[in-house]
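WARN  no MSA supplied for this record, continuing single-sequence
INFO  ligand: zinc ion
INFO  echoing inputs
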Amino acid sequence: MPVDVGFVLNLENAAIESLGDPTSTDDLDDYFETLQFLFSERLILAAFDLIDRESVIRFKTPWGYNQYHVLGSTANYTVFPFRSHHSPTPYCTCPAFTYGVLLSGSEIMCKHLLATMIAIKMSRCIERTLSLNDLAIMASAETGSG
Ligand SMILES: [Zn+2]
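INFO  complex generated
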């Protein structure tokens, strides 16, 4: 009997979206079981490594919007762990996500996105408040200076 791939994908998507939701389950044991079911041990360990290095930053804007950044070894990435008008699905700006998840479909998650979701769930994000000045600097950095 063939496996219904669409059904499995829907299940995965629903599970992935619930990962970053602090209210989806109170039981962290269940949570880690879900992680192990969905992702490779290598990816989970890489995500926890980022959290242990305090690399998952939650920036709060003056108007109450949260933006997530992960400090990578060579670059910093913006992560959108929730569905929003910015992103129809959870999303990360790193090359691994673009090539592994979006283009080839060989991965369903990158370590930054997973780390952000786990950090939200476990309240392990580093909190920073952004001023309007910070935002202007970030905006000019993201659009390029030239
Ligand atoms: Zn990433």
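Residues 77, 92, 94, 96-97, 110, 112-113 surround zinc ion (CB under 6 Å).
INFO  checksum written, moving to next record
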